[in-house]
């Protein structure tokens, strides 16, 4: 359902215009009245707009009109660029007007055929607090028919009561079709099934799996590695009988059936106490376990994981609550309005500790160790976080993913990006290679930014000490380089590989980092993570969190690295009056995402890098 897009860049004064046309400044302006950095992407599949923006300003001036009126006025005045007629614009339905913590209105307009919503298309219009239009994105469908008939195939069954099936219209190469959209949280997929013949038109995994690691930090950590008594009152109701509150329901899904049996719930060991001490297995397991990185079970002893079952579930619940609060607070602002995870809205996190640990052998099978994942369906449906044990090897210690802050925060942050980078229908549009690579990078970045800012991890002047996976991998990074490896670093830990080159990665290294060859989302995500860490070093942690999050809300469908660079530039104009434009351009240009960098979109694994900064920057 997603067509490849035209290779794109930025229209710059004195530069080359690639797959772009320049935009009118206001709703009534002559189309020839343009700025020097206008961006228009036209989706070749629909022939309609994918993104309208100006990197040197706003699309319109301030207005006191209602946001919906501002949006509709602009769309009608610029309908030849948008690709819809007046009547098609009038027929758009405002599904949601989400106002973020900076006062920006993110309006989602959906289309319909015969009263049935067209999913995966539509339009989003982003309007600043003062009424200026920041950007428009989407892929609306022009020339929709009046009807697509009736369903000839019954709605497909789902696995559990929490799943959702709804009738939708989906745009295909053969035209709009009536379909069933099935969101199965138990199986972890969202599928679109042709309502005429039952053909599966698309199937998207909701699960993000990762090999990552690291009490406040992790057991034995120099900072935050000792159990401390904390209050759960803000996350649990009074006299809670299990770990089930507004932010999460955590249990130990040791039989891996995605259902909380009574024996898998964790009950207080006193009326209101969930104080469970940690049993350290380091002495019996041996290296790489140590006093500084303690092991939580013995893979050579069946059922040894039971010793820390209650402790680990309580630890996981506390991490989830901590991260919920961190993301909800400023400057990130992942609130209820933004689509966060709370029982009051029907979608608390379902946290499954020690998933699959209980087999006939008393040990997890090969599908249930050395991993963790988070499956995030649309707003109003609970995400599922599955945390596994780690099996001891020469380089991996016998730990538990639910004991490691960076793993839990990484997984939860997938939910942040899945809820903010969405189409007008509210479905995540993190689909293709570059978008998925940023998906991994965001999860690494937000977690490590917090841990460093809190003093739980260090970012010393020497390059290469900000590492994802430090706990489980005994002081090494699960990535090929540390996150704080700048371009041209000479530190051995920033040596990269012969294919990609040494000293911090650039956009031209995309598809060259993975040790086995070819593109790989975790490996290629290192480019984006290192770039964002550079941005953090330049403009600070607080401001970086703000701009990176606001940029997600401004993201077009299935964004590329350049789309998100542009979104950060747009976010800076909203949040900080454009004061950081020069710093942002220089940061991205240093990583090969300069003015003349190009890409064919998120599917492109051979983008062209460029190190040019706009002249005024």
TrEMBL record:
Cofactor(s) needed: Zn(2+)
Pfam families in alphabetical order: FTP, Peptidase_M36
Annotated localization: Secreted
Keyword match Secreted: yes
Domain FTP: 91-139
InterPro entries noted in UniProt: FTP_domain (IPR011096), Fungal_virulence_M36 (IPR050371), Peptidase_M36 (IPR001842), Peptidase_M4/M1_CTD_sf (IPR027268)
N-terminal signal peptide: 1-29
Keywords: Hydrolase, Metal-binding, Metalloprotease, Protease, Secreted, Signal, Zinc, Zymogen
Family: Belongs to the peptidase M36 family.
Name of the molecule in the record: FTP domain-containing protein
């Amino acid at each position: 359902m997603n067509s490849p897009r035209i290779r794109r860049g930025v229209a710059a004064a004195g530069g080359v215009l690639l797959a772009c046309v320049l935009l009118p400044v206001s709703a009534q302006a002559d189309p020839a009245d343009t700025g020097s950095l206008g961006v228009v992407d036209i989706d070749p599949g629909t022939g309609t707009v994918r993104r309208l923006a100006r990197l040197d300003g706003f699309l319109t001036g301030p207005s006191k009109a209602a946001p919906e009126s501002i949006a509709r006025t602009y769309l009608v005045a610029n309908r030849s660029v948008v690709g819809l007629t007046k009547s098609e614009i009038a027929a758009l339905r405002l599904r949601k007007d989400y106002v973020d913590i900076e006062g920006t209105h993110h309006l989602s307009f959906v289309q319909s055929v015969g009263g049935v919503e067209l999913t995966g298309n539509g339009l989003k219009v982003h309007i600043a607090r003062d009424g200026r239009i920041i950007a428009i994105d989407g892929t609306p469908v022009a020339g929709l028919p009046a009807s697509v008939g009736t369903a000839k195939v019954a709605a497909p069954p789902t696995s559990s009561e929490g799943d959702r099936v709804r009738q939708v219209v989906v745009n295909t190469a053969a035209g709009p079709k009536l379909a069933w959209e099935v969101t199965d949280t138990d199986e972890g997929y969202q599928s679109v099934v042709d309502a005429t013949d039952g053909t599966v038109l698309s199937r998207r995994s909701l699960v993000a799996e990762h090999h990552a690691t690291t009490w406040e930090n992790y057991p034995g950590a120099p900072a935050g590695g000792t159990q401390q008594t904390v209050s759960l009152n803000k996350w649990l109701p009074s006299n809670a009988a299990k770990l089930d509150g507004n932010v999460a329901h955590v249990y130990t899904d040791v039989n891996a059936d995605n259902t909380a049996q009574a024996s898998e719930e964790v009950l207080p060991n006193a009326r209101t106490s969930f104080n469970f001490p940690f049993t350290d297995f380091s002495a019996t397991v041996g290296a790489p376990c140590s006093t500084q990185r303690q092991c939580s079970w013995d893979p050579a002893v069946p059922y040894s994981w039971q010793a820390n079952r209650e402790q680990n579930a309580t630890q996981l619940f506390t991490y989830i609550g901590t991260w919920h609060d961190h993301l909800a607070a400023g400057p990130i602002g992942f609130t209820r309005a933004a689509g966060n995870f709370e029982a009051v809205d029907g979608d608390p996190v379902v946290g499954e500790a020690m998933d699959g640990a209980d087999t006939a052998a008393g040990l997890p099978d090969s599908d249930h160790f050395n991993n963790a994942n988070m499956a995030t369906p649309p707003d109003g449906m609970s995400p599922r976080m599955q945390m596994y044990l780690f099996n001891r090897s020469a380089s991996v210690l016998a730990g538990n993913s639910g004991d490691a802050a960076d793993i839990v925060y990484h997984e939860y942050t997938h939910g942040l990006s899945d809820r903010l980078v969405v189409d007008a229908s509210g479905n995540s549009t993190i689909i293709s290679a570059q978008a998925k690579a940023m998906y991994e990078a965001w999860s690494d970045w937000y977690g490590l930014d917090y841990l460093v800012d809190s003093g739980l991890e260090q970012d010393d002047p020497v390059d290469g000490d900000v590492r994802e996976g430090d706990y489980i991998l005994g002081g090494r990074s699960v990535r090929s380089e540390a996150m704080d490896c700048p371009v041209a670093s000479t530190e051995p830990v920033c040596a990269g590989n012969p294919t990609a080159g040494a000293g911090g990665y650039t956009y031209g290294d995309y598809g060259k980092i993975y040790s086995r060859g070819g593109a790989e989302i975790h490996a290629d995500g290192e480019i984006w993570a290192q770039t964002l860490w550079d941005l953090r070093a330049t403009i600070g942690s607080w401001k970086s969190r703000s701009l990176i999050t606001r940029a997600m809300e401004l993201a077009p469908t299935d964004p590329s690295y350049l789309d998100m660079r542009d979104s950060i530039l747009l976010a800076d104009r909203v949040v900080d009056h454009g004061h950081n434009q020069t710093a942002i351009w220089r940061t991205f240009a240093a990583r090969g995402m300069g003015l003349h960098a190009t890409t064919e979109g998120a599917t492109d694994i051979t983008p062209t890098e460029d190190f040019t900064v706009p002249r005024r920057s």
